[in-house]
Known about the structure:
Layout: E1 3-7, H1 16-30, E2 34-40, H2 46-51, E3 61-65, H3 69-73, H4 77-91, E4 98-101, E5 112-115, H5 128-141, E6 147-150, H6 153-163, E7 168-169, H7 176-180, E8 192-198, H8 208-212, E9 219-225, H9 230-244, E10 249-253, H10 257-264, E11 269-271, H11 281-288, E12 292-296, H12 300-309, E13 314-315, H13 320-330, H14 334-345, H15 350-368
Parallel strand pairs: 1-2, 1-4, 2-3, 4-5, 5-6, 6-7, 8-9, 8-11, 9-10, 11-12, 12-13
Amino acid sequence: MSSAVILHPLYSDVGGAEKVALEVARALVKEGWHVRWLTPRPVPKISERLKLLGGLPSSVKMVYVDTPFISKVLPGKRLHALSLYRHLLSLVHEYGNLVIDTKSDMPIPVDIVYIHYPMILGWKKRNPLYERLVTWMYQRIRGEPRLLLTNSRWTADIISRTYGMNAHVLYPPVDTDIFGKALNINSTRERIVVTASRLDPAKRLERLVDVAIRLPNYTFVIIGLTTQRSRQALELIEQRKRKLRADNVEVRMDFSHYDLMKLYATARFYLHPEFPEPFGIAVVEAMAAGLVPIVYRDGGAWTDIVSQLDERLGYTRIVEAANIIREIEKREEWSRLSMRAHQYSSQFSTSLFHKRFLSYFHQLLKQLKLG
């Protein structure tokens, strides 16, 4: 049996990157491959958090390695990641003859790399000394993968400008079949606006309160996936609620797919934070459930998804979302846009991800003369 290694360090946060890794593992298992998942020793209860994304296939073996001391003491996430990946690359070929990286977000010398966002070199230069050290460490492990994949045309453009490499767009897997069941639960939708996001200050979730006070007849529900920085994000939301005296904003945490689908069955709109999302799995999940999406006019969530649905569903300042919602309701366009969103979401399904990934995978095997 052929063996593959998924290179993907696991931490306390789980999200789109972990969903991609899980579905790559499932696709390979269905093809008869023996799959190992290589990670440093993860945080406790990581298995429970992965279950929020459907869980790890039983036949996939987790391989835990110790994190080098130097990786623990280097300052900043990027230096930590570079040091850790240098260590993992020295071990990975012990566990399989084909290597797939779904976490590093940089071109490295393995068979397949899936970049979600070029985090290593794609930042604004704030500390010249730190940036020189990052670049020096990256040069020691960089390499051109045999197959470079990414999550949107928007991200592919950034990869081209950052690394000078062309990436194939493979949209992430979305459980549209699960969320599509929301259409069969409720025929009446309430005045509810939902946002699903990691509870992280970088997502600027407190800005949603500014929209809520402009639509007092709507309830705004923030579904937060907890992270190490969740307490700070929650404090920012509560401070904003108190300052603006908003009593129509709720925060709920760590919903399962099923619970989220049931909430979506009662809601009318999905409002994404003021953040350029490289893709936006949460946006497509909501669309599959029949919610009308409203997103920031930047990032893959806009360029590859919502702008293709209707140009009016994007904002440049988040307070504009209130007027977008009012206009849709006034023109009685919600039902038409809801159905169109549901239908458009099907092109991002998990089954199509499997099909498209395996198409790239088999082409690579032919090149390697393994298939």
